[in-house]
Structure formats: C-alpha cells, structure tokens
TrEMBL record:
Residues 1-21 form the signal peptide. It comes from the Bacteria. It holds the Pfam family DUF4331. This is DUF4331 family protein. InterPro entries: DUF4331. Keywords: Signal.
Length: 191
C-alpha cells in the first residue's frame, strides 16, 4: 500500500509541475522571466533552477544508477544525451541483476532494452491506448492505474515469455488502498 501512496504523490506532483514548466534548450528571455515571476498565484519563480530528479519511469534510475555523483549527473542530464552516456551502465547493472537475461517479453536484447531504459522519458502515443504495458501496447504513456513496478520487474526478470523468475516479477501490491475517483483529477481522496 505504501508504494501506491508514493506513486499517487509522485504523479500528483508531476501533474502539478507540468502547469509551470516547459522544456527548451534556449535560455529564458527577459520577457519570459518577468511573465514567470509575476504569475497569478503570487509565487516567485525567478532565479536559477536545477533539475534534481528524473522520474519518467519510476524506480528505473533508482535501480540502475548508483547513488551519489553518478545519480546526480543522471538526474540533471538532458534526455537526448542520456542513452549515449548511460546505456552501458544500465546494461552492466541489468546483467548483474539478472545474469541469465537473454531477451525479455518484448523480445528486446539487453542492449536494446537498456537503450530504451537509459533515456528516462515517458513516451506517449497519439494512436495507441495510453498504457505503460497492457500485454500488447508498451510504453505508449502511463494510465493512472498502470502497475508500473510490476511491468518493470516483468521486463527485467521475466525472460522471453514473462514467466521466468515468477517470484521476482511482481511487487505483490495489486491494488491501491483507495479507489480512484471517476471525476478529475481522478486520484483517490487523501487518506
């Protein structure tokens, strides 16, 4: 239950932050900075900001990047540069966690799979159902009820059919402690 509460809090914070953040390689102009500083909420967003964490795919950088300087550098990395910089680190960690890894349920080799994982972004498809993994669609977004941790464990330890290492392919947290709402923002009420 604790994992699901954490997921809901992270998702809420992520959703809230989307209202205030936009990505660009360009520096803010003076006009953009003024507009950001003088928002309708009275919160001052002027100054220099530093990205502290990557969390598009929960637990991925927690498992594949060592804490300390390597994790700090990964968390501040530009997503388009992550794959090149961290793929070999992810692959060596994957093979340390699962020395018998050949391919996973998606048919991806260690190199192919870690190439996807090492770029910690949330992929979104405009044409497929929004899901982290539903047995057919993979990484086409993330629905609120998706069991992201089970999917990641299955892809790391489940082997080509997803049936290998059955004790390692689930965190055994199969439901939230409260049901989601059917009205926006769909999260369960505070406990």
């Amino acid at each position: 239950m604790r994992t699901n509460k954490f997921r809901i809090v992270v998702l809420s914070l992520f959703s809230f932050s989307l209202a205030f953040v936009s990505c660009s390689k360009d520096e803010n102009s003076a006009n953009e900075t003024s507009a950001i500083s003088a928002n309708k909420f009275g919160v001052n967003f002027s100054g220099t900001f530093v990205q502290q964490d990557q969390m598009a795919r929960p637990a991925i950088n927690t498992v594949f990047i060592k804490s300390g300087a390597p994790k700090d550098a990964f968390n501040a990395a530009i997503p388009s540069e992550m794959g090149t910089a961290y793929r070999s680190i992810f692959e060596s960690r994957l093979l340390a966690l699962n020395p018998g890894y050949t391919t996973n349920a998606l048919g991806l080799t260690a190199s192919q799979f870690t190439g996807i994982l090492s770029t910690d972004v949330l992929n979104v498809s405009k044409t497929a159902p929004t899901t982290f993994f539903d047995g057919t669609n993979v990484l086409t977004g993330r629905a609120l009820a998706d069991d992201v941790i089970d999917t990641e464990l299955l892809l790391i330890f489940g082997g080509p059919t997803g049936a290998s290492n059955p004790t390692l392919t689930s965190d055994n947290v199969n439901a939230n402690d409260k049901a989601f709402s059917n009205k926006f923002p769909y999260l369960a009420s505070a406990w």
